[in-house]
Amino acid sequence: MQALHAIPSVEVMATTRGQLDLSDAGAIQRVVREFAPGHIIHAAAFTAVDRCESEEQTAFAINATATAQLVAVASEVGARLTYLSTDYVFDGEKSTPYLETDTPNPQSIYGRSKFAGEQAVGDQGQIVRISWVCGRLGQNMVKTLIRLATSTDGPLYFVDDQHGCPTLVADLVPTLIRLVLEAPFGTYHVTNQGATTWYEFARSVIALAGGDPERVQPIATVELDPPRPAPRPKNSVLENAQLRQMGWPLLPDWQSSVAALVHELTQR
Ligand SMILES: NC(=O)c1ccc[n+]([C@@H]2O[C@H](COP(=O)([O-])OP(=O)(O)OC[C@H]3O[C@@H](n4cnc5c(N)ncnc54)[C@H](OP(=O)(O)O)[C@@H]3O)[C@@H](O)[C@H]2O)c1
Q1: pTM for the whole structure
Q2: Class assignment of domain 4-266?
Q3: Closest atom of ligand 1 to CA, residue 20
């Protein structure tokens, strides 16, 4: 845990969709002008990766157009903007981890719409790419696996040909806040350390949750039945090169942080 006490006191406004619907350009302007923040952390997105394939217009409206509108009004009120983006901006064909300077080549509508959001930010803000996000709140793979560990029998099939880095919200947030407050505009990769596959990840979580990891069986993405509408990058490991270059501490290895999260979620 980094030194949260070093963070100055700030007033935070977190909006619900009801308070600020990103499909409403007028609402974006009104809310930002009224609150006149010093910083905007733009985390909201249309994240249903497979639905994006059939709802392209909505994906681009929320992930790209609304981001451009936020960039414009942020500039008007003098706010710094930090845009959360994704490993899905890469095509996954690289054989080594992706650097912040690598050229995106998104293959899915979700990835293209998020990359369009990155382009709207350009050099007028920060782009923070994260991947395989799990935390205490919201739906995520750790919660799904904990439920599967205890509520079902039989084999569980997970792909072993998609490689990435989990990002634990509890580890991300201190670094994200520090980036917002201290780092220059630019692109940053922020993930936990260590790459894995969904197969290895599932085995770990099932075991941590008291289930039998041998139930987890590896399959290839092409064996998924039914196939997923959106292509996923087979390699989306993000090298945290900018954090290294700045000499900032990297996030811990994913295993210890996932163990802590599983413990927290199963002790309630
Ligand atoms: N999860 C991952 O593995 C992952 C990986 C890489 C990057 N990211 C990025 O991280 C950020 C957070 O992702 P997440 O996984 O936390 O997503 P999430 O659980 O789907 O949350 C997205 C949020 O955006 C809000 N939203 C969607 N459409 C909106 C609209 N029209 N107006 C206002 N709010 C709207 C949603 O509101 P409702 O609750 O009302 O639907 C929800 O609160 C996103 O930018 C995503 O692209 C996530």
Answers
A1: 0.96
A2: alpha beta
A3: 33
